[in-house]
Amino acid sequence: MLALILLCVATMVALMFGGVFGRRLPIPAIATGVVMIFLLKGLFVINPNEAIVLQLAGKYVGSVRSEGFHWVVPIYTKSKITLRVRNFESTHLKVNDHDGNPIEIAAIVVWRVRDSAEAMFEVDDYENYVRVQTEAALRNLATHHPYDAHQEAQLSLRGNIDEVARQLKHEVQERLFKAGVEVIEARISHLAYAPEIAAAMLRRQQASAVIAARAKIVEGAVTMVEMALTQLQQRNVVHMDENTKAAMVSNLMVVLCAEHSVQPVVNTGHAEKR
Fold first, then answer.
1. Is residue 267 part of a domain?
2. Would you say residue 264 lies in a domain?
3. Which of 55, 73, 99, 259 is deepest in the core (most CB within 10 A)?
């Protein structure tokens, strides 16, 4: 087609020169020029990761996705759409988690157009559709999981980041499939308790950490006391009755579980009066 356009240009130039020397502009030169302008409207260039959607009288004709120099029937309507990878970060949404606690959450979605025709015709504005459906999926996900896990093997937003990201990607992809959009990655970018309960939840986390630490200390102390009593009996270092064992256990537990350094009291016996 480019060769045909160049031929029209050469023909028009030749006819115009002939008309100039003949002191008149021949009608074939004008007709050739009109045909050349009409054919030039069908030329277009597609850059990498771009597509052209073609329509004829409102009817979808096809899409051109291969990069380079192309020509189509000039009466086709051409609409350009990008196929590049794009990312979108949602606003900080305030929702209630599975336990009813208000939290702030946001996500980043990496996406691109998979089907240019569906993106153009299935939804009104596919970019706005991506934004709205992503936030809707994020809200729905946040209500199905707690911020922190309070039970064994419970899925939480903070403790299971990778699994939550997979669920978010799957849910967003289901919502955007009809718009011809492919979700490449979806991850939570912001997660925090709402300001009105942040202080209370911080104290709760600190209390949980203290309880866990004290439980670990007590468990270790019991193990050490048991080992001490067992080794004393096996080596016949000292013979102790039940009352002596109870006193020793009490003293060892105080020493091992105390938060501050313990000051021992050494029994040196009773001094005789003279």
1. no
2. no
3. 55
Element (H, E) at 38: helix 27-40
Number of structural domains (the chain) is: 4
Q: What percent of the chain has pLDDT over 90?
A: 8
213 Cβ contact list (under 8 Å, min separation 6): none
Contact 30, 10 (CB under 8 A): no
Which amino acid, residue 142? A
65, 29: one domain: no
pTM: 0.62
Are residues 90 and 187 part of one domain?
Answer: yes
Alpha helices in 50-192 (DSSP H): 116-121, 126-144, 161-176
Identify whether residues 96 and 161 lie together within a single domain: yes
Q: Which domain holds residue 246?
A: 198-257
- pLDDT tens digits for range 72-131: 878 888 888 888 899 888 888 888 888 888 888 899 999 999 888 888 888 888 889 999
Cα(254)–Cα(261) distance, rounded to whole angstroms? Answer: 10
